[in-house]
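hiii so um. not sure if this is the right channel but i have a protein structure encoded as tokens and i wanna go backwards to a sequence. like what aa goes where. can anyone help
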């Protein structure tokens, strides 16, 4: 970790009913109160945003509300889709884009991912842009090439005024929800290469400021070693974000890693 403020996101995916979402957001708000030097966001399903927003507001929580997806057009005939303005009404300030489940299961195109990235950043929201290789791509030694291609594609014609508004999530597809995690050294290596691509796409000071977070079976026991790596600035957490104690432990590991370096905000 480094001078960058750690970012930990809880990606709840298509889980929880309304009561469960309220209970989990209340627990996260309570737990996050004692943590400093960290930015925390939770990403519930669209239908729970209203309830989660109300719960976090009641708790006067600094935990940010995220959406798992967005449609890039401002309004119009897009059946089933949700716009940035609609999300804003529910307190959303960050959106995940390009998650592997959307790339590979829902078959979103690179072009749509680029349009979403631009829409989120143009709206002044934090875009958590996900990249990562499949197992086949890893075994063919193309991890860095895949990450680079996904980054360059999504960031074409993006200009950054505020570096805090882009977070890159490196999520090896083979590690998501599988219990398999990249080793801290492998993850660090991929993150350093991603930072080099960002330096080329933008410039070196932007690349130094952008948080690059790791996702893929992060748990309380592997989080400390991952977050101690110099280019790993937090995590995007799936399964473990549904368990308040685990999510808290992971957030605490990110906060501790930052503190261990004696960096103050
Ligand atoms: P996981 O999911 O922590 O369950 O592997 C991570 C993600 O999909 O963001």
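sure thing!! here u go:
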């Amino acid at each position: 970790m480094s001078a960058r403020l750690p970012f930990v996101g809880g990606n709840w995916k298509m889980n929880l009913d309304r009561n469960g979402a309220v209970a989990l957001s209340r627990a996260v708000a309570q737990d996050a109160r004692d943590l400093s030097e960290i930015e925390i966001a939770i990403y519930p399903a669209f239908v729970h945003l209203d309830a989660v927003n109300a719960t976090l507001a009641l708790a006067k929580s600094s935990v940010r509300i995220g959406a798992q997806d967005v449609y890039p057009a401002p309004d119009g005939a897009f059946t089933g889709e949700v716009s940035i303005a609609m999300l804003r009404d529910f307190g959303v300030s960050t959106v995940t884009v390009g998650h592997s489940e959307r790339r590979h299961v829902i078959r979103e195109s690179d072009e749509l991912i680029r349009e979403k990235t631009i829409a989120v950043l143009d709206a002044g929201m934090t875009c958590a842009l996900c990249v990562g290789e499949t197992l086949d791509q890893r075994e063919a030694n193309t991890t860095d090439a895949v990450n680079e291609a996904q980054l360059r594609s999504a960031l074409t014609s993006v200009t950054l005024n505020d570096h805090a508004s882009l977070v890159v999530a490196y999520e090896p597809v083979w590690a998501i929800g599988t219990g398999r995690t990249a080793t801290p050294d492998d993850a660090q290596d991929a993150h350093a290469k991603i930072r080099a691509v960002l330096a080329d796409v933008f410039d070196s000071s932007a690349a130094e400021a952008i948080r690059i977070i790791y996702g893929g079976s992060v748990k309380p026991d592997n989080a400390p070693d991952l977050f101690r790596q110099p280019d790993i600035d937090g995590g995007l957490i799936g399964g473990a974000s549904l368990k308040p104690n685990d999510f808290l432990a992971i957030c605490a590991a990110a906060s501790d890693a930052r503190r261990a370096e004696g960096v103050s905000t």
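oh and The first helix runs from residue 18 to 32.
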